[in-house]
Design goal:
Layout: H1 3-12, H2 18-29, H3 34-41, H4 47-79, H5 102-115, E1 120-121, E2 127-129, H6 130-133, E3 153-155, E4 160-162, H7 167-176, E5 181-190, E6 202-212, H8 217-232, E7 238-245, E8 248-257, E9 274-283, H9 285-290, E10 299-306, H10 307-315, H11 322-325, H12 328-331
Parallel strand pairs: 1-5
Antiparallel strand pairs: 2-4, 3-4, 5-6, 6-10, 7-8, 8-9, 9-10
Helix pairs in contact: 1-4, 2-4, 5-10
The structure holds phenylalanine (PHE).
Length: 337
């Protein structure tokens, strides 16, 4: 090996292994190494040659020493915390903040609106017996809603099922309290329905119940108008259409004026200018007496709405399935609320 080859080898040498670095040290820097042999040759040269040759091998030795020190530091650093592999200037991974689910956000908004006018909040079990979900609510034994199509039964004889509406909580409240009763009951409900963009087998409702002496249909209408305007804006109008529920008489469905087309008629309101948001009515006297409240003294109204439906109306979401898929890209849009 001549000096030029050695110079090149030292210059090009690279390693991240401590073992290979030690071999390098022995080869160029130890007493028995390649360079030492050249130093031995110095004695045999003339004074002039010796000076020139001596300088060359000294430079090589210094190069080798420098290389050795540099690689040694790099290898040591890598062992302690791997700093040489880490780019300290790279942006940090920002921890993602969680956010409340839009259904929870809107549930709270609805409860807050009713809390302001004296309603308290109550909950009830998701697994119900036939009495609380159907019978006390005046469902005739052959009512279609009792059909297996709509209800997820857990047991029969006696019938135990996942509640199909939050009206079951209404029964429990009346059984346990005497009027005045002013309560809203949010909760998850279950129906054996095909999952589509418009309906789901699991969704959320809020039930409202107000019972006292002389409670009238007009009280109900004003309460619901107040709710609609608090929720959707003071320009919102409501209309009540006659309907049927076994537990209310008379019964109605409430529409609000469509906020998208301002009543002109658009795709979302199916060109009608109105959007249905809840069912309501005066509590049937049979239901009051079923629950231990004297219908000759007291009257009251009840209403029930789907929280997803209200959320969809507020945030213009077209597909109810989005609320149950937990796609972060969808949920993140509600993080600022
Ligand atoms: N329970 C009814 C439903 O699930 C809604 C409702 C509640 C209607 C209270 C009238 C009074 O559709």
């Amino acid at each position: 090996m001549n000096l030029e080859e050695i110079r090149q080898e030292i210059e090009e040498f690279i390693t991240d292994s401590a073992e290979e670095l030690e071999q390098f040290r022995q080869k160029y820097l130890s007493k028995k190494g390649t360079l030492s042999q050249f130093f031995d040759q110095l004695r045999t040269l003339t004074a002039d040659d010796r000076k020139e040759f001596g300088q060359k091998i000294n430079t090589l030795k210094n190069n080798a020493l420098q290389k050795f020190e540099q690689l040694k530091t790099e290898i040591e650093n890598r062992c302690v915390g791997q700093t040489s592999d880490i780019d300290l200037t790279a942006p940090a991974n920002v921890a993602q903040m969680g956010a409340r689910h839009p259904v929870s956000v809107v549930k709270k908004q609805i409860c807050d609106v009713f809390a302001k006018i004296g309603f308290t909040i109550a909950q009830g079990p998701e697994i119900e017996d036939d009495w609380h979900n159907f019978e006390a609510l005046n469902f005739a034994p052959d009512h279609p809603a009792r059909d297996m199509q709509d209800t997820f039964f857990i047991d029969t004889e006696p019938d135990i099922a996942l509640r199909t509406h939050t009206s079951s909580i209404q029964v429990r409240i009346m059984e346990q309290n005497q009027p005045p009763i002013r309560v809203v009951c949010p909760g998850r409900v279950f129906r054996n329905e095909t999952i589509t963009a418009r309906s789901h087998c699991i969704f959320h409702q809020i039930e409202g119940l107000y019972i006292d002496k002389n409670v009238s249909f007009a009280d109900m209408k004003q309460t619901l108008l107040y709710f609609a305007q608090q929720m959707f804006g003071s320009h919102i109008r409501i209309r009540l259409r006659p309907s049927y529920f076994p537990f209310t008489e008379p019964s109605a469905e409430m529409d609000i004026s469509c906020d998208i087309c301002k009543g002109e008629g658009c795709v979302l309101c199916k060109k009608s200018g109105w959007v249905e948001i809840l069912g309501c009515g005066m509590v049937d006297p049979n239901v009051l007496s079923n629950c231990g409240i004297d219908p000759n003294i007291y009257s009251g109204f009840a209403f029930g709405m789907g929280i997803e439906r209200i959320t969809q109306q507020l945030y213009k979401t077209k597909d109810i399935r989005l609320f149950f898929e937990n796609d972060v890209r969808f949920l993140q849009q509600f993080a600022a609320i």
